[in-house]
């Protein structure tokens, strides 16, 4: 028989480290249905047997307020693991016992991992494991998860308990005369009615009714509305009585008594201190510098900038390797396949699509590595603490800063890892508002578009314009977040109550697993969808092709061009190897032929579905000063923002252009009569705020847990961007630009 | 000994929680972290913009916003 062991514990208890130590590489990460909480499982050998280990999300308690707590509680109640291991931080025992008490009240077979005994010792604390075990009537095993010490003993104890289940009676705590009396009354009603008996024990259900736990009451009402109402009535009666006599509600009363119970245990000599408890730990001393009123923000800016460097500068080379590899694949496929639709589909649709997905991988890996370092050292919590006041004003949370910075808060980021960075936020409303607004930041792919337009129309004020653009992105994102939080994601801010965990040196294994499993999730989940959409985009930019008579016209033009040059030049061009020196005549002919190709490409693009969409939209987009060429470019920009530049180039018959080399295009635009600084400003604003590229959109869907939000971000952003662009264009035109 | 609101406590000032008036989600979060009557706390520091506040509670540090601290009264020495 394979025993199932669930790992429970507070955040920062070393639970994840313990999970990694127990399971090694034999893990599997998924999601709980319907929520974005990760479900991690793994296997561990115990003697000749294998145990199945489930790592529950880290929680302080088992109330059902956060997704994590709901998931943990539901798992424990519904799936009934054979044993639960609760990981405790020995250097912070009192707080960690709150979860233990709740697990014992649920009547779950429990083994306690008294973790970080080394840290406790270094802080002058000694925890008497035997005494604790005796007082709680639960096995306690001292461990040091970082080194793996005690893990064999722990898993053995858990396996023993799984094999010979002792009849665990739920812990009974007295909550004062009034509540105890009501509990007995409710308990007998519950037992008689066999109410919710498959999942929970009667006393626990009664406690939840007194705590007015919405989740359990809803479940109760569904199976037996009559009994549920009677229980609610008793609960209301007790609440009214407590309110009148003690000015308290049952829920606080219960919590106070639980803490009283924990203190009574601690006071029976479980902890021996050889130190004054007011003593400053090393962690507090570090905090005196890192969260200092003056030095703190400066150091934080430096660290965020450093993170940015790590993510973008160091991932540049691997990104190039990946792109190089896919470039080679494209070339090979182009050489092997005959020119035509199949070649175009394989090269432009499939290989470029997969390449686009894989090109983000090094970036995402480095970003998650950087965030894992910040998270595991405990610094991320300090960043949230220092910046919360600013972000709170816009309905966000101090932790929102990570997503913004990575998305391009410092120009040149990327919204894909940025949206994924919003995971570090534990408050659902703030997380949603953050990940919907982070794509407004100026990612690296928008920069060539800005550079092009600035070079064409504002060459004198380059630096100032770039600074203004960065500032505008921040303002746009924060204001949009505020608007979202006041309308569709309205509601009280999630309480900030947050632990500042002690600074710790991260373990290599912890960083590696964190980074790898998140990156793999991106490849696995986003990858397939992104490939599909990239083929779809290829289709709308390609079909329907030019009608045959049009293609024939271009062929005739080519022949005319060739005929106007001497025979020798044509011969030379046909026979020349790639990169060979050509005579002036042959070079001129090659240029003239390329011009025809470009015109054909322009005509084909104009005729494609994307071109037709662009043309049809012209009547609307003229309000922002955009003609069909710009529209096509913007449609293409949905694939990746840098496509805006290359698509514009095709639309202006300039042939294929490297997005980094935009001089010719910028000169063309500067001379074109349909362009003006007003149009350029409007396009800058539109590019900044309109629909995120589809890779980001897919990530939004995955992170927000629903395609509804992905669709929302496309529609809302495009509408908002259009209104702003029209405003800018009309205003600038009025002012004479 | 006098009772003041947690918001108006000064840096490094210590005390014992007297009442927690919050209910609902905030109340639960506060109690889950052990901020209940009888708990000893000490103001560890404040963020650069004076909000949130960092508290030492037993063997750990936790932060809460000033408008959340308003629900907590403390007996200070």
Automatic annotation (TrEMBL), chain A:
InterPro entries: Fe2_transport_prot-B, Fe2_transport_prot_B_C, FeoB_Cyto, FeoB_GTPase, G_FEOB_dom, Gate_dom, GTP-bd, P-loop_NTPase
Domain of life, source organism: Bacteria
CDD domains: FeoB
Membrane topology of the entry: Multi-pass membrane protein
Function: Probable transporter of a GTP-driven Fe(2+) uptake system.
Protein name: Ferrous iron transport protein B
Keywords linked to the UniProt accession: Cell inner membrane, Cell membrane, GTP-binding, Ion transport, Iron, Iron transport, Magnesium, Membrane, Metal-binding, Nucleotide-binding, Transmembrane, Transmembrane helix, Transport
Pfam families recorded: FeoB_C (PF07664), FeoB_Cyto (PF17910), FeoB_N (PF02421), Gate (PF07670)
Organism (species): Desulfatibacillum alkenivorans DSM 16219
KW Iron (keyword) present: yes
GO function terms (MF aspect): ferrous iron transmembrane transporter activity; GTP binding; metal ion binding
Binding site for GTP: 9-16, 34-38, 55-58, 115-118
UniProtKB/TrEMBL annotation, chain B:
Coiled coil regions, renumbered to chain: none
InterPro entries attached to this UniProt entry: Fe-transptr_FeoA-like, FeoA, FeoA_core_dom, Transcriptional_repressor_C
Keywords: Iron
Residue ranges of every copy of the Ferrous iron transporter FeoA-like domain listed in the record: 4-76
Keyword Iron applies: yes
Domain of life: Bacteria
Position of the signal peptide: none
Any GO molecular function: transition metal ion binding
Xref: Pfam families: FeoA
The name this protein goes by in its record: Ferrous iron transport protein A
């Amino acid at each position: 028989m394979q025993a199932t062991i669930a790992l429970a514990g507070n955040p920062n208890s070393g639970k994840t480290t313990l999970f990694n130590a127990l399971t090694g590489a034999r893990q599997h990460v998924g999601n709980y249905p319907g929520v974005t909480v990760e479900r991690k499982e793994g296997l561990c050998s115990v003697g000749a047997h294998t145990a199945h280990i489930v790592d529950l999300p880290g929680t302080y308690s088992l109330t059902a307020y956060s997704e994590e707590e709901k998931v943990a509680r539901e798992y424990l109640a519904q799936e009934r693991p054979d044993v639960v291991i609760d990981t405790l931080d020995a250097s912070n025992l009192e707080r960690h016992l709150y979860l233990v008490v709740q697990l014992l009240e649920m009547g779950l077979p429990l083994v306690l991992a008294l973790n970080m005994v080394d840290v406790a010792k270094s802080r002058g604390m000694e925890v008497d494991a035997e005494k604790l075990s005796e007082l709680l009537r639960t096995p306690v095993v001292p461990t040091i998860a970082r080194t793996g010490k005690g893990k064999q003993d722990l898993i053995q104890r858990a396996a023993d308990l799984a094999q010979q289940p002792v009849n665990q009676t739920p812990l009974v705590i007295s909550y004062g005369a009034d509540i105890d009396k009501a509990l007995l009354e409710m308990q007998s009603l519950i037992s008689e009615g066999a109410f919710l008996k498959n999942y929970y024990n009667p006393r626990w259900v009664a406690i939840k009714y007194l705590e007015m736990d919405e989740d359990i009451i809803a479940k109760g009402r569904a199976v037996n509305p009559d009994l549920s109402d009677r229980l609610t009535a008793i609960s209301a009666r007790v609440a009214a009585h407590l309110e009148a006599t003690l000015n308290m509600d049952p829920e606080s009363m219960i919590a106070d008594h639980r803490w009283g119970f924990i203190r009574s245990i601690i006071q029976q000599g479980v902890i021996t201190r050889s130190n004054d408890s007011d003593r400053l730990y090393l962690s507090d001393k570090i905090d005196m510098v890192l969260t200092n009123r003056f030095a703190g923000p400066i150091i934080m800016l430096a660290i965020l900038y450093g993170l940015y460097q790590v993510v973008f500068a160091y991932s540049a080379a691997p990104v190039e390797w990946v792109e190089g590899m896919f470039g080679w694949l494209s070339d090979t496929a182009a050489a092997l396949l005959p020119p035509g639709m199949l070649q175009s589909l394989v090269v432009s649709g499939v290989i470029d699509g997969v390449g686009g997905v894989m090109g983000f991988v090094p970036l995402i890996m480095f970003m998650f590595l950087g965030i894992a370092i910040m998270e595991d050292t405990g610094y991320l919590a300090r960043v949230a603490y220092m910046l919360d006041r600013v972000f709170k004003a816009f309905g966000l949370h101090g932790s929102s800063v990570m997503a913004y910075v990575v998305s391009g808060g410092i120009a040149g980021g990327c919204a894909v890892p940025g949206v994924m960075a919003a995971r570090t936020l534990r408050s659902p409303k703030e997380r949603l508002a953050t990940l919907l607004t982070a794509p407004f930041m100026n990612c690296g792919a928008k920069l060539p578009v800005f550079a092009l337009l600035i070079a064409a129309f504002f060459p004198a004020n380059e630096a100032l314009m770039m600074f203004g653009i960065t500032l505008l992105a921040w303002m746009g994102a924060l204001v949009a977040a505020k608007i979202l939080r006041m309308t569709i994601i309205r509601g009280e801010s999630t309480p900030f109550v947050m632990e500042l965990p002690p600074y710790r040196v991260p373990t290599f294994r912890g960083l590696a697993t964190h980074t790898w499993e998140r990156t793999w999730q991106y490849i696995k989940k986003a990858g397939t969808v992104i490939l599909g959409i990239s083929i779809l985009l290829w289709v709308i930019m390609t079909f329907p092709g030019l009608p045959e008579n049009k293609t024939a016209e271009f062929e005739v033009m080519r022949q005319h061009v060739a005929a106007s040059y001497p025979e020798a030049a044509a011969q030379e061009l046909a026979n020349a190897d790639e990169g060979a020196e050509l005579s002036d005549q042959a070079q001129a002919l090659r240029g003239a032929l390329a011009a025809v190709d470009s015109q054909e490409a322009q005509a084909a693009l104009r005729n494609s579905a994307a071109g037709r969409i662009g043309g049809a939209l012209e009547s609307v987009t003229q309000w922002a000063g955009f003609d069909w060429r710009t529209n096509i470019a913007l449609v293409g920009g949905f694939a990746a923002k840098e496509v805006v530049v290359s698509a514009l180039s095709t639309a202006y018959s300039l042939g294929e252009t490297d997005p980094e080399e935009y001089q010719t295009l910028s000169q063309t635009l500067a001379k074109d009569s349909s362009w003006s600084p007003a149009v350029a400003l409007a396009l800058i604003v539109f590019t900044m705020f309109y629909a995120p590229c589809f890779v980001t959109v897919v990530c939004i869907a995955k992170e927000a847990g629903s395609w509804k939000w992905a669709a929302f971000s496309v529609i809302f952003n495009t509408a908002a961007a259009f209104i702003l662009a029209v405003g800018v264009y009309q205003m600038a035109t009025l002012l004479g630009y | 000994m006098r009772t003041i609101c947690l918001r108006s406590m000064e840096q490094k000032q210590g005390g014992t929680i007297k009442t927690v008036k919050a209910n609902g989600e905030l109340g639960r979060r506060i109690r889950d972290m052990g901020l209940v009557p009888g708990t000893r706390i000490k103001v560890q520091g404040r963020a650069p913009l004076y909000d949130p506040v960092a508290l030492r509670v037993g063997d750990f540090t936790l932060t809460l916003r000033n408008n959340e601290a308003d629900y907590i009264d403390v007996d200070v020495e």
